[in-house]
Structure formats: C-alpha cells, structure tokens
Amino acid sequence: MNVDKGYVDVPVDKSIDLKSEITKLKKEKNAVILAHYYQKGEIQDIADYIGDSLALAQIASTLDNPIIVLCGVHFMGETAKILCPDKKVLVPDMSAGCSLADSCDADDFAAFLKNYPNHTVISYVNTSARVKALTDIVVTSSNARKIVESLPKDAPIVFGPDRNLGNYINSITGRNMVLWNGACHVHEQFSVEKIVELKKQYPGAKVLAHPECKKAVLILADVVGSTAALLKYAVESEEKQFIVATESGILHEMQKKCPGKEFIAAPATDSTCGCNDCNFMKLNTLEKLYNALKYEQPEIMVDPEIAARAVLPIKKMLELSK
Ligand code: 13P
Ligand code: SF4
Q: Whose CA is nearest to atom 9 of ligand 1?
C-alpha cells in the first residue's frame, strides 16, 4: 500500500456514503475512533470519543479494541501506541505533525538537560517519543499546574517545550522552572490589538485563551485553560458571548453544546493566513479516515526501546491526574 504521502493514496469512490461506510468498517473491525477537538467538525461528529490531549491519552489507556484510529496529530498517535503497544494505532495522515513538538529536537534537548543535573524534567505531551524518553513526568495543559504543584516548592524543574505554557505555570505557581524555548505557531499568532477591538465590539463577551498563547493574550483573558477546560467554562457559564483564543476546531463542539451562545474566533495577527486553524490537525479528512480503516494504514510505530522509557513519564502523568 502506498503511504509515501503520509496517507493511503487510493482514490475513494465519490458515490459512497463515507459516514456510513466508516461506521460499517469500524464495526466489522472492532475499531474505535478518537478525535481531538481541533479536528474538522465532520471528523469530530463521527468519532467515538472526542477530547483534549489528556482525555485522549486517558481513553486510549483503557480501550480493548484491537484498532485505534487517532484523528489528531502524530504525537497523539505515538502516545496512544506507547500506552497500547499491542494494538494497531492508525493516524489518517501521518504527516500531521506539530510545530511545538518540532521545536524540541531530542538530541538538542538531551544536550540542554546536561546543564541541569538533578532537575526534574517535565515535558508537555506535545513532544516526540524520544523527548518523552528523556522526561520524568509528562503533562498536558489540563494537568500541568496540578503536577508541578505536586512537587516540593523548591524542587528544581526543567519544563519543555512550550515557553508560553511554562511561563504561565511559573506565574500561577510561583515556581522558577527552567524553560525550553519552544512554541506553537497557531497559538503564538493571536493578535492582542484585534482581541482588544473585539472586546469593544462585544463588551459582554468573556475571553477564553489556551495557555499556549503569548503572555500579552493571557493577560487579556478572563479564563485560561486547556481546550476541555475552556469548553467546560463555556457550557457552565451564564454568559452568552465568548471570544475564543485557541485553534478554531473547538468552536464546533462549543457551538454544538451551547446552541444559544455565540463564539467568536479570536483573530490572528495576519488575518489573511487563517492562522487560528492548525494546518496539521486539518490534514485529516473523512476520505483519509475511511482509507485508514479500510487498509489499516498508515500505522504508528515506536521503537520498543524508546517506548519502554517513554511510557514511564506518561503513566506517571496518568497516575497524578486521577
Ligand atoms: P490540549 O488538548 O491539552 O488543550 O492542547 C492543545 C493542543 O495544542 C493540542 O495540540
Ligand atoms: Fe501542535 Fe499547535 Fe497544532 Fe496543537 S495547534 S497540534 S500545538 S501545531
């Protein structure tokens, strides 16, 4: 099977009903579909489970299905494979990378860590398996605060790779973690000026921001949290309008769960670039998902030696998140 482009490159018959064929294949093969909130709406709608990075890892660790299709980016598939080495883990388009994970090369990170002996190494889940293998505890944006606070107040910590999340956690916990200088190209793009303008236009709106955003955006925010935390706030809040500074895919579930509320995507600095869409997340399509299930490709593979080391900090995170 040709997966040179990162996905099964076989034309899909235009006359078939993709959604019902995907459901049929899923039943036949006892497969399960997990999707991140940043996936296209049609993929979220067909998934068995949708969630943020933490939820997807937690769900993957409990599943019995022999095939897991992870509709998200490569590191999410890798995390599922590390947790479920005996299962087939498919990602519809393997070239769905992550600029944040790419901002932390494992060899460079290993060299950096040599400067900080005796430090606890905390890595965001948005990292490669090789970086996780160098890590003591993995975190996501949902549990980073709780996990950092579980360590003694004076514990020396290296935190990577997201400098914005790291700075934010330092500011709310009073820690002074050493930070790796990485970032996500989507979350760094939100424009402070345009959010201020929007606030004037929608004076009652609450600003919801993901901690991967720059400090200047987080200062403007009423709520800072992971995608799941922002969704929960929107559902439970009495407010009716929200300016959302994270990847635009989350608006699909927000709007679905709160039909009477209005969600406004925070604009990026360059409004012509569509930067609040993660181009990697949006590489997965229903056609690629259908082919992935049909041909059981492309499959995520992780070097067993790396996986044996990387699983420890992921399991530690799951343990500390209970
Ligand atoms: P969460 O899923 O933890 O909110 O992280 C967002 C993200 O950028 C995933 O790639
Ligand atoms: Fe990576 Fe940013 Fe895309 Fe999330 S939104 S997958 S952090 S590039």
A: 53
